[in-house]
Amino acid sequence: MNAQIVTIGDEILIGKIVDTNSAWLGNELTLSGVKVQKVSSITDNEDDIKLALKKALEETDLVILTGGLGPTKDDITKKAIADFMGQEMYFEEALFDKIKAYFKRRGIPMVDAHRLQCFMPQGVRLLENQMGTAPGMLFEKEGKYILSMPGVPYEMKWIFDNSFKPVLKEMLPDGLYIYHKTIKTVGIGESRIAEMILDISDTLPSDISLSFLPSLGSVKIRLTKKSESNPKQEIDTYINRLTERLGSYVFGFNDLSLEEALLRDFSEKELTLAVAESCTGGLLSHKITSIPGSSKYFLGGVVSYANEVKENQLTVSKSTLINYGAVSEETVIEMLNGILNLMNPSVGIAISGVAGPGGGSKEKPVGTIWMAWGSKENQKTYKLSLAKDRLKNIEYATVFAMNQLRLFIKDL
Amino acid sequence: MNAQIVTIGDEILIGKIVDTNSAWLGNELTLSGVKVQKVSSITDNEDDIKLALKKALEETDLVILTGGLGPTKDDITKKAIADFMGQEMYFEEALFDKIKAYFKRRGIPMVDAHRLQCFMPQGVRLLENQMGTAPGMLFEKEGKYILSMPGVPYEMKWIFDNSFKPVLKEMLPDGLYIYHKTIKTVGIGESRIAEMILDISDTLPSDISLSFLPSLGSVKIRLTKKSESNPKQEIDTYINRLTERLGSYVFGFNDLSLEEALLRDFSEKELTLAVAESCTGGLLSHKITSIPGSSKYFLGGVVSYANEVKENQLTVSKSTLINYGAVSEETVIEMLNGILNLMNPSVGIAISGVAGPGGGSKEKPVGTIWMAWGSKENQKTYKLSLAKDRLKNIEYATVFAMNQLRLFIKDL
């Protein structure tokens, strides 16, 4: 089964929003064995929607539309579909009752736009949406399908997961396997990896595809094979060889994030962590706590943005700040000892740098970031020399910090 | 001038990465007066790339390809373009010298893949890339253009901004105006806004388009007009009417973020801020410090994830934690006073809640988040009752917190 994803809305074309829905859908469909041929974004003009539907249905079995449904004026997708299918609109009483009940429960006044939402093209199969007022809509046309969902990501995801997946299962034939596995690395670049694994990648069978996915500070390596017999074992053998070769650069597999790897490693060793952040401003704490269960090892942190906070909460001495500056090895070591004494974790980390775009000097240009990490007994420091982009600097430093923590506790 | 954006890579189709490049390009092109007709993502198969180039060039003046360039094996875009243009490849010595120098400067060994990168299709105009080793490539074919850039966002952006924009300027005809302005609101839903402004939106001229862009906790309202005379004044008049109607829900215009509005408002009143975060785990601090200049008002914060940190650093009393729990009005008030005493800011905020998915109880289900904010003299509290998604809860609470801070200091 093939699919195309079409997102509707000028907002995407003029760049006012990023289309995250297609990536999510692409992943879900691929894992379900549906091949996504194409993703496209079109304007929310009725004729463009009809033309896109026509073209896509010529090439594919399932067209998934997202966007263009909702209580405000810019809703025209429904009209375009009704017209394309040659159907009239009708008023869906049951939906109206549900929306009324929903607003009553939440104590919010209902507005006229919500009544208009209840007009539906004839022949639709409505798919429940517990996250909002616009249901998903499924249509069949000559053995092919159109699925239309609202563009709000959490509504779309809820409908797809809960209301559409059971239907999709019935649509799919049995017996085709797609298997992929991803190695997650951190602390090494794409080209260097390519070189390290060259002899393995050169002997990969041609039906196994290898791809690199670099992002700030980390690279994913993915192997994929599609076949009529289950390719899991073959892929896993290559994954094991690559993993062995890349050693401690590898922190996990598939969707495991670096944050999750930290939680895994700290929990395993029953260690705790506290952090002192200056230039990263809380992003390290946020990343760590973005995953459930992080309270198992993360005690907390101090965001010491102002120098007085470095002095008063983290006991950095005034003379260190004056003599060496807030961005220095001396300061991060004192910050580290400050947070170790304050919260008494097994391990701590301290970060202070010039994130930019201002604040740089000839001696300490934008992108200079000092870190110190370790326990009371064993401490390490490092100076990063990054580039000029503020957010990139903050994010890279955070990834670097998590990696150093991961490597540090390997030997504890 | 029309354009289509084509992103290359299976990674997008199978959902392993989100295409943020297209949104960025869409915005840049729109602001330059280029209409983006379509955005699409295709596989990194050579034939698919050639077919996409052919189709797009039939419909449009400028095709922008991103992705499929880089030092690792999955680079085939260049070959597809060379073939499509009917050109041979040649070795670009100057590029090779530059890459060699770059690696020497950074002290990183150069690998073979970087040499292969220096083969280029004849007839190319190379566009400098100071962020990486693969330059942008511009081709002309019968008065139409193909621009190909690497997919790594900061490389692509650098090339577009610095190397392509000056060229684009020469391509464009003079005299067509596209003007849009966006009102940024927070603390009110899309439907409610639609109702509040109904009489204004109903009388909008048909050539002015109105759209709503909801995201977690905030909604943008955008007016657009394209015309041969400058529509700025007309749009601004309607923007003023809408802004007046929506009152304090409006925090700014266009690309101004809520974080930037906070910086603006706090700086204007010369106030300072410190935060105490439990369930938001540092995201509030991160958002605040994600923009340059935030050190003007942001002193710092404590991420009090463990109860001991609430007790020891924020002086929340043990009895409060035992009698009312960490997620309670009593606790956030003590956390607020703790951070006010600790860092002595003009204003503070404290947040404690059950972000989920675990940790909920019948009395305090997942999504229960208490906040307290204010100065030593004047404090407010609020209980949010959110849903089940951890990250959504953390993000919504952060937006809510920033909005309460914004509203609180209005009267100071």
Compact description:
The first copy, chain A, contains 16 helices and 17 strands. With 412 residues, chain A is α/β, with parallel strands linked by helices.
What does this structure look like?
The structure is a homodimer of 412-residue chains. Chain A is of the alpha/beta class and 412 residues long. Chain A has helices spanning 10-13, 21-31, 46-59, 77-85, 93-106, 112-116, 153-171, 190-196, 198-202, 232-246, 258-268, 283-289, 307-312, 318-324, 329-343, 390-410, and strands at residues 2-8, 35-42, 62-66, 89-91, 119-121, 125-127, 136-141, 144-149, 177-186, 209-215, 218-227, 250-253, 273-277, 298-304, 347-353, 368-374, 379-385. In chain A, helix 3 packs across helix 4. Chain A is globular, with a radius of gyration of 27 Å. The two termini of chain A are 50 Å apart. At the A-B interface, helix 1, helix 2, strand 2, helix 6 and helix 8 of A face helix 1, helix 2, strand 2, helix 6 and helix 8 of B. Strand 14 of chain A pairs antiparallel with strand 14 of chain B, so a sheet runs across the interface.
Largest interface (C-beta under 8 Å): A-B, 100 and 100 residues
Strand content of chain A: 25-35%
Strand order of the largest sheet of chain A: 2-1-3-8-7-6
Tally of contiguous helical segments of chain A:
16
Q: Please, what is the average pLDDT of chain A?
A: 91
DSSP strand tally of chain A: 17
- The portion of residues assigned to helices of chain A is 40-55%
Summary keywords:
homodimer; 412 residues; five-stranded mixed beta sheet; alpha/beta; six-stranded mixed beta sheet
